[in-house]
Write a structure and sequence with these properties.
single chain, alpha+beta, Aminopeptidase, 2 domains, eleven-stranded mixed β-sheet, 11 strands, 31% helix
């Protein structure tokens, strides 16, 4: 009898062949409702469905639906046929148990290079709203540092810069809410302020401001994750990574090179820290970030596929 662990092991082996940047193994979520499906050509696939409900006042509500059903597929050696069968079983399950018609989503996070599964996800109504993109540290050897344009200068931000950091962060959130998974909630300003206050007060996490004549026009908010010590980012290979949490450029300064200059500054610090690489999330429907980040050396590793509301899964 094929077990969930057998399916997971075979799945990881197949996916690493598609993309060597993927981790060689992934942990199963600690809970969830099991789901099974038969593949038309023979064999079976499985999955776990977890549910996350984000109450008002939680940070997650700014980049997620309030009620999210996530499928963790266990396809074994199967690709598109296995994903199609499992999504069909999930649709039947939701039809039986029901799903909210508002502020909800169905979510599948899947390796970006598995295009056979991509076809199945599209056919079931999923949209690629976000990607986790990576940039290997070796890319720094091949890219010269870009300079900030004209009289623009960059410096590390501190607690006194809280208002500027929040304002630029909210501008990025407003734009992302038009083109991705983010949602501008009524309490977004306070949530952003609380998070920024903690980050600016904590030593170690690099946050930069770009200024022109003393006026903040750009923000690069970054940090560090050691996936070998903590499994907060299990979809990355083990090691110390840098992450780019938010880059926001004032509308009047977009297209002038401020963003490229700030990111180049961040990459230089990442390289000096000896990280495995850096990662970030961006929205493929975003006409700015979908062009900007590949130019900086990032490429999709995992794609976050969503159906909103959850009841729209087909």
């Amino acid at each position: 009898m094929t077990t969930a662990q057998d399916l997971l092991q075979a799945q990881c082996a197949r996916l690493v062949e598609l993309d060597p940047e993927l981790p060689s193994s992934l942990p199963l979520p600690g809970g969830g409702d099991p789901l099974m499906a038969r593949v038309p050509g023979g064999g079976s696939v499985a999955g776990l469905v977890t549910r996350a409900q984000h109450p008002p006042g939680s940070q997650n509500r700014m980049w997620s639906a309030a009620d999210t059903f996530e499928l963790h597929p266990l396809l074994g050696e199967h690709g598109g046929e296995g994903m199609d069968a499992l999504l069909g079983a999930w649709r039947q399950r939701l039809g039986e148990t029901g799903a909210p018609d508002e502020d909800s989503s169905c979510l599948v996070v899947w390796p970006s290079r598995d295009v056979a599964a991509t076809r199945a996800l599209l056919d079931h109504g999923f949209v690629p709203l976000s990607v986790l993109a990576v940039r290997p540290s070796a890319a720094d050897r091949d890219q010269q540092n870009a300079k900030l344009p004209g009289t623009v200068k960059a410096r590390r931000a501190g607690p006194a810069d809280l208002d500027a950091v929040v304002e630029l962060g909210l501008a990025e959130l407003d734009y992302a809410a038009l083109v991705g998974a983010s949602v501008r909630r009524p309490d977004a300003a306070q949530l952003k302020r609380n998070a920024a206050r903690l980050r600016l007060a904590a030593p170690g996490d690099p946050v930069w401001l770009a200024e022109q004549d003393g006026v903040p026009i750009g923000l690069a908010e970054c940090g560090w994750v050691d996936t070998a010590r903590q499994r907060s980012s299990p979809r990355l290979r083990a090691g110390r990574w840098a992450y780019v949490n938010c880059v926001s450029i004032a509308e009047s300064a977009r297209g002038t090179g401020v963003g490229t200059g700030l990111v180049s500054l961040a990459h230089a610090e990442f390289a000096s820290a000896g990280v495995v690489g850096s990662f970030l999330y961006y929205n493929p429907p975003n006409p700015l970030s979908s062009v900007f980040w590949p130019r900086q050396g990032y490429r999709p590793l995992w794609t976050m596929w969503e159906v909103r509301p959850a009841s729209a899964l087909r």
